[in-house]
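@channel sequence for tomorrow's demo:
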Amino acid sequence: MTADPSRLTPVIVGPTAVGKTAVAVALAALLPVEVISADSRQVYRNLDIGTAKPTKKERAGVPHHGLDLIQPGERYSAGRFARAAADWVKDVRSRGKLPVVVGGTGLYVRALAEGLFEQPAMDVGRRRGIEAWASGLEPLELVRWAGRLDAGFAGGGRQRAVRAIEVALLTGQSLSTWQREAKSAGAIVPWYVRLTVPRAVLHSRIKHRATQMIQAGMIEEVAAVLADGAVAGSPGLDGVGLREAVAYLTFGGDRTAVAEAITISTRQYAKRQETWFRHQLPAETISLDATRPAAAVAAEIAELWEKREEEPRLREEERRQR
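structure tokens (generated this afternoon):
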């Protein structure tokens, strides 16, 4: 099947700290792009440092959609993201710009590119009961329950695990089964670019960023969110890095050890991301070496995109010449 050129959309993915934001900003100097952020942590307000959001300067260089949408404590699903992102994509295109999806949350990317499933109706009272039960369990125990109830559970934090559990218990069918069988069309036709670096390089970048986060005031940022009424372990504060800051603020300990704890958990998260992208993206995905300067990577993406855009015209010219 030939992709609809009006829906073909660049999608830049890769593990955390690989350099996606810097590449997207550099790409804006070459193509008229706007970024659709596919990051499940950056939707939360007031957690700029802890979620490594693009800086004000970076946002001034290229408009971003999908940041600062909700308050910490509120749940935000891949389906909700896909519906909003579909509108952002249309809006960007209506202004003659090119939407570029950038992020490391695989489920968000999949929901936008492959479509949503029609969520089955679930009893509100029983759902609240499950949520109350789940609130008393540790994240790892919730993940184990999700895996028992849904063999296709791909992992994730507390929010994803609870959703998998409640769908399985309340509908009698696993979430992964619903997703396979009750899906509608995607909002875009993805043109995937995966950024990669050697494991040692990624680990070094993660450690450097964790140290920078602490120095920039990440712990104080999280403390302010907790003081504003957010609950430890709630959506937005249960992500990698943030939960380490919450643990330090809740139980105390050695402040200098927080960066190392964030480094360790982020490396584990990056490994899961790499595994997901390696197995879930199509064979024709373009993989680019991101050890190079962001401008060089962006230049290659722009060149490949423009070449891809030229292919239909070249094929038509070739057909006419025959």
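heads up for whoever presents: DSSP finds 13 helices and six strands in the chain.
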